[in-house]
Structure formats: structure tokens, C-alpha cells
Amino acid sequence: MTGDPEEGMLSWDESVFRNEHVFEIDYVPETFRHRDSQMQSLSYALRPAVRGSRPLNVMVRGPPGTGKTTAIQKLFDEIGAQTRDIQTIRVNCQVNSTRYSVFSRLFEGCFDYEPPSSGISFKKLFGQIAEKLVEDERVLIVALDDVNYLFYENEASDTLYSLLRAHEEHAGAKIGVVIVSSDPALEPIDELDTRVQSVFRPEDVYFPVYGQGEVADILRERVERGFHEGVVATDVLDRVAELTAESGDLRVGIDLLRRAGLNAEMRASRTVEREDVETAYEKSKYLSLSRSLHSLSENERALLEVLLEHDGEQAGDVYDLFHEETELGYTRYSEIVNKLDQLGLIDAEYAEIDGRGRSRSLTLAYEADAIEARLE
Ligand SMILES: Nc1ncnc2c1ncn2[C@@H]1O[C@H](COP(=O)(O)OP(=O)(O)O)[C@@H](O)[C@H]1O
Ligand SMILES: [Mg+2]
After folding, report:
1. Are 294 and 254 a contacting pair, CB within 8 Å?
2. What is the set of domains in the chain, with CATH numbers?
3. What pLDDT, in 10s, does the model give residues 204-256?
4. 195 by DSSP, 3-state: which?
């Protein structure tokens, strides 16, 4: 070691971070690179709303962490800054996964207060929203973000049907719909009722996974805003980009940077080293698992808990244990199995069982330890 032993060490009031906030979940980035064509298609579809007409409906698809929510948010911000004649509302369907709760959010967006909790009928709720739109002469653009959750709960067709036929029941109401699906295995149109299919012909906008070069571009800017100069060297950033591209989810990279920074601070180091990144990755790689678990209901968690002890067993046997815990019937059980399968938490695969015909075996998609630790 040469010179001052304190050199390269952080004192208590110092930090590697210039602005840790840029690594937070709800941070909207100033620049949004590598999404020009998607932004153009979206704004083209929504443009009629600026002239007071009903915009084209849009179906946005792409895996998690490809910039879909950010694109909607940026566009809605731009529209809001440009005109008062358009009401934009983004509904998070992971949280609002029924038609009623989607419309409660729309009510809240239109009136700036929540609908009465005493429980007014859906018809009334909808009527008041439509009336308000007509009265204010505003076009409503609804983004159903992570709409795949509405499909998992069998609420997508009803929700879309109401939105798309609004102008028939409420003269003068103009509503455009953007659905955003994060489930690559879901074909939304195929899953809708035929009565909805006949009125829903959306423009398609696809968000592919970012390549490693694109990830590096995007994260470099985050590093510049978030860390002090010289904290993250190029080769360290390249490693982050590599791990991120492997996962396909840009969120992993952002989480990785933040955790690696914290690891460096833990060592009182002024620089983030490769090792800090590797250690951080042991946590960051479970980001999507954590997110999926977070959204589960009590009964859905109960099934996972049963599977922690009975990984790989037959659906019928697992049902008996699940039923003991929850007292739910087989139909509801099957729905929950399907949802966990769609979320990528379990694999439910048909197999021939001797003498018992075809049955599904239920296997956890992650190590039991990783799931258990994150179920709280
Ligand atoms: N082109 C981009 N430039 C900067 N940040 C981006 C870009 N694309 C995505 N992000 C960031 O990556 C994270 C995930 O993006 P998000 O829009 O939430 O993805 P999705 O909705 O497709 O899951 C967010 O923190 C967002 O700020
Ligand atoms: Mg999103």
C-alpha cells in the first residue's frame, strides 16, 4: 500500500452515490433510448384524441423490464403537458385485477377522489365516469398496465367490453384503450370472448428484450446520474450489462447497480468492484420471483407453501393438502394452479400415471429455499 491509508476509503458522511433515487422502482428516466419506433407507433395511435376523436386502441406486448410502463408514462406526461382535453389514466392491473376495481381507479382519476366505499353498483360507477367525460368534453385514454393479471382472474373480457362499448351506452363518451401485457405466453386476442374480439382490433406495438449493447447504453447513463465520477469502471459496468442481458429484464440491472453500490459502501470503498456486482447478483437475480410472490393472495401463497413440502407431486394429492389448509374446492384450486403456472412460479405438466390416466404434476420453478425466504 502506498500513501495515505485512508485513500480509497469512505468516511461516515460520504457515499458512492450522487443520487440514489435514480435506482428506485418508480423513477422515470429523463432520456428513453432505443424505444423510438415504439414511442412513434404509440403516439400515432393516440393522436386522434388531440383532435377530440376516439383514439385507436393499442396492444403493447413485451417481457418484463423492456420499458413498456415507462413508455406509457412518458407519453401520458407529454399529453398532459400539451392539452387539458385528454384525460389519461394508467391502471396497474396487478393491483386492480377485477373490472370493478379497474373502474374504481378510473373514477378516482376522473374525480380526484375515491368512489364511495359503501359499494355503488358497477353500472352507476361507470355511468358517473361517462357523464363526467361528456360534461367536460374530454377524451379518456386508459392504459391497462400488466393486463395479463386481468386475464388470470378471468376479468379481461368484461372489462374491455365495457370500455369498448362505452360510447353506445353513453352517447358522446370517447374512450381509447391501451392494453399492456408482460406475459410472453399470453395471446390476449385469442383469450377474449368473441363478443369482445369483434370490437377490439388494436394496433400492435412490440417491446423486445434489450440487447447487451443497449443495456450498457442505458445503464451508463443511470450510472452517471446515480454515482459519483469514477465509482463504476467500464469493465464493471460491462459485467452488469452482461448479467442484465442474460436475465432480459432491465430492472435486474438497475437493482444490481444499487446493491453493488451498497456493497461497496459496506466495505467502505470508493469504487464498485466486480465482486460487489457478483455478490449483488445473488439477490438481484430473484427480482422477478420477489415481484411475483408479492402480488399473490393468501390462498395462492397457501398452495406454494404446500408445494414447498410436496414439490413434484401429483395435482390430485396436492389438492387434498391444499383443501385441508384452505377448505377451497377443486375448481378454485385449478384456477390457482393455472395462475401460478402462468406467473412462472410452478410448472404444471401433464404426465401419464400408471392406472390413473393423465394427471398433472406440480413442480416449483425456483429452488424451494429461494421461494421460502421470499414468502416472508
Ligand atoms: N430505454 C430506457 N431508458 C432508460 N431506462 C429504461 C429504459 N427502458 C426501461 N428503463 C427502466 O427499466 C425499468 C423497467 O422499465 P419498465 O418501463 O417498468 O418495464 P416494463 O413495464 O416493460 O416491465 C424502469 O426502472 C425504467 O426506468
Ligand atoms: Mg410495467
Report:
1. no
2. 36-206 (3.40.50.300), 210-285 (1.10.8.60), 295-374 (1.10.10.10)
3. 999 999 999 999 999 999 999 999 999 999 999 999 999 999 999 999 999 99
4. helix
Residue type, 69: T
The predicted-structure confidence for 82-139, as pLDDT tens digits, reads as follows 999 999 999 999 999 999 999 999 999 999 999 987 779 999 999 999 999 999 999 9
DSSP summary character for residue 54: P
d(CA 57, CA 202): 5
Give, in order, the Cα–Cα distances in Å from 153 to each of 173, 195, 335, 343.
27, 18, 8, 12
C-beta of residue 370 within 8 angstroms of C-beta of residue 289: yes
- Closest by CA position to 247, among listed 215, 222, 220: 215
Residues within 6 Å of ligand 1 by CB:
27, 29, 32-35, 62, 64-70, 182, 207, 218, 250-251, 254
The one-letter code for the residue type at 137 is E
Atom of ligand 1 nearest to the CA of 70: 17
| Nearest-angstrom CA–CA distance, 40 and 54 | 18
Name residues with Cβ closer than 5 Å to ligand 2, which is an ion.
Answer: 69
The grid coordinates listed for 171 are: 352517447
Q: How far is the CA of 6 from the centre of ligand 2 (A)?
A: 43
Please tell me the pTM assigned to this model: 0.90
Looking at residue 5, its pLDDT comes to 56
* 326 to 41, 146, 330, 341, 375: CA distances (angstroms): 47, 28, 11, 19, 17
Q: What is the DSSP letter of 204?
A: E
Q: Which of 33, 36, 70 to mutate to test the pocket of ligand 1 (most atoms within 8 A of CB)?
A: 70
Q: How far is the CA of 60 from the centre of ligand 1 (A)?
A: 14
Q: How many CB atoms lie within 10 A of CB 272?
A: 27
Question: How many Cβ atoms from other residues are within 10 Å of residue 232's Cβ?
Answer: 27
Q: What letter would DSSP give residue 272?
A: B
For 347, phi and psi rounded to 5 degrees? -110, 120
Protein residue whose Cα sits closest to atom 15 of ligand 1: 67
